[in-house]
Each structure stands twice: as structure tokens, then as C-alpha cells.
Amino acid sequence: MSDIEVVRHPRARSMRLSIDPASGRVRLTIPKRGSERAALKWAAGQHDWIEARRAELPLPRPFVPGAVVPVFGESLRLVHDGAARRSVKRTTTTLVCGGPADAFGGRIERWLRSEARRVLEAETLALADSAGITVTSVSVGDPRSRWGSCSSSGAIRYSWRLILAPPFVLQSTVAHELAHRRHMNHGPDFHALERDLLGADPVQARQWLRAHGASLHWFGRSSAGAG
Q1: Is residue 28 assigned to a domain?
Q2: CA within 13 Å, CB half, 134
Q3: Rounded distance, CA 156 to CA 142, Å?
Q4: What pLDDT digit, counting tens, does each position of 23-65 carry?
Q5: Is 227 part of any domain?
Q6: What share of the chain is helix, strand, coil (3-state, %, to 5)?
Q7: In this structure, are 211 and 153 located in the same domain?
Q8: Do 154 and 91 belong together in one domain?
Q9: Are residues 18 and 89 in the same domain?
Q10: 87, 107, 89: which is closest to 220 by C-alpha?
Q11: 127-136: per-residue pLDDT in tens?
């Protein structure tokens, strides 16, 4: 199977298969000195298990005309209008984009990334200013394993896909990263500051991300392992 990612783990005692819920990619973990050839042969015999687990993954949500996309708490329908400008225009209920149909999905994603950066930068700087916290930069990317990160220099980076989550989830992530500006750990002082910055218990946002976070990675994709 050519789509299996083989990972050698120093503490692994046996072979183990898992499916990345954010990408659908198969991961084969083997002991540090295990035989990769033997492990791949074993994995090839687990086809039914792999397909069953993939069937449980979130459904792909490609950016195509007619699709509905959540944007910071609002549901917006995607519209392709060949006579409209190529740049994306937001109305009360839609995102309208012109130009060639085969470029539609890419333009929608670029708009969403730009909107994510705008909203996250505004939310971050406003909260940082009110709390007297210094932030040197705010940017967005598309990491698979984290929703935000904060460096010791004050640079904060988020997943652009937070714009697809409910506002309280995005705002909780902002409070989480800002709390790291004073506490680069997850100790009691960090959690106390996180709650204070958010003005609420962040547990609800964490629970939402555990339950629904993987599904955000399937927006803009047409199939498992694509995109």
C-alpha cells in the first residue's frame, strides 16, 4: 500500500495501524528495529479494517457552488457567477465568486484564509491590548496537529480553519495562545490566566474541538487523503 506512512517509534513494542482523522492517511507505527518489509506485508492484510475506519471519517466538504460553509458563526452559501468579478464578494448569506469554474475552490479557500487572518489578528490584538500583553505578529497556516502556537518572541500562529469553528472556539484559542505569552507551560497559573482572559471556562471549546475539530480539516477537500 503506497499511501501508508511508516513511523519508527523507540518505545513501540509491536506494529500498530492508525488513521489520521484530519487527513485520512494511514500510519503504520513499528518498533525502532522492526522490519519495515514485514510490517508493510502485515498492513496490506488489514485492508478491511483500514476501509472500515476510513468510512468513519468526516465527509469531505469541497468548496463547490451550492456548498454551505460556516464562517465565524454564519452559514454562507458558495455561489459561482461567471459574470461576476474573480475576487470573492461576501453578502449577508453568500460568498460569490466569478472567473473560471475550475479556479472557484482555490479562490474561496484563499478568501477564507484571508478572513481568518483578519479576524484572528483583530481578536488577538484587542485582547492582548486589554491585558497588557505584547504580541509581535499574528499569522495563519494549515497545521494538522494544533490550532495555535506561540513563540517566546511573541509571534502567534493559528490554523486558518478556526474561522470555520464557532466564535467561542476561536476566541478560546486566542485566549489560550495569549496566556502562553506569560506562561510557556500548561500549569495552574497558565490555566488561571487563560480563564481570566476568556472570561469563561475554556472547557466547552476544548470539548467542541475534540468532537468536531477533525471535521474542519475536511473542508475544501474532495476525498480522503486529498488536499
Answers
A1: yes
A2: 5
A3: 14
A4: 888 999 999 888 999 999 999 999 999 999 988 888 999 999 9
A5: no
A6: 40, 20, 40
A7: yes
A8: yes
A9: no
A10: 107
A11: 999 999 999 9
Does some domain include residue 154?
yes
Domain count, the chain: 2
- For the chain, what is the radius of gyration of the CA atoms? 21
The residue to which cell 461576476 is assigned:
84
The type of residue at 46 is Q
Instruction: Provide the CATH number for the domain around residue 171.
Output: 3.30.2010.10
Low-confidence ranges of the chain (pLDDT < 70): 1-2, 223-227
Question: Do 77 and 154 belong to one domain?
Answer: yes
**Alpha carbon distance 101, 83 (integer Å):** 11
C-alpha cell, 60: 469531505
Domain that holds residue 21: 4-55
Residues in contact with 155: Cβ distance below 8 Å, sequence separation at least 6, in sequence order: 135, 136, 137, 138, 139
Q: ∠ CA(24), CA(68), CA(87), 5° rounding?
A: 100
In angstroms, what CA-CA distances link 83 with 70, 93, 96? 25, 19, 11
Cell digits of residue 183: 506562561
Query: How far is residue 184's CA from residue 202's CA, in Å, rounded to a whole number?
Result: 18
C-alpha cell of 140?
A: 495563519
Is 111 among the domain residues?
yes
